[in-house]
Amino acid sequence: MSSVLHDLAAFLVEAKRRTYAGLDDDASVATPLLAGSKQLEHHAAPYTYRDIYFGMGFFVGQETISRDDRAIWSMSYSGGARAEITDRDTFLEIYKFLREALLGVSVDEPYRGPRLFEQAGMIYRNEVEGALDRFHGIEMIARHDGTPLYELRYSGGLLR
What we know:
By secondary structure, the chain is α+β, with helices and mostly antiparallel strands.
């Protein structure tokens, strides 16, 4: 990985840990660009990270990184808890676990969480193909007994 890509990946890991994974919606900006969305941001010159998403049980969103006010990288995602899950406490349990898994994001694969994370009776799996310049993947959460709880698909890369 070139030093430029390594710097970008390191910034992305820092941004993810300082927004949703680490702070949940407490990292939201007061007035999002798109009405009805949640918008999370992190700045460390020369980079700016922005994550804008809609929804909770099922959600869609897009992360972007700009360098000197020019978008250079983006990832879109959609997914969420299974449709039959409607209990708020279960949503909160799933998303708390998800944030713990996402804190394990690494510079080698800075897209979502680690390949495997287990805790509190749940298993997080992340299957990804590609590299920072072009990638796609799927993350899943299930109970230890195999009951599926959540699924999200994502893709992105360097903009050119």
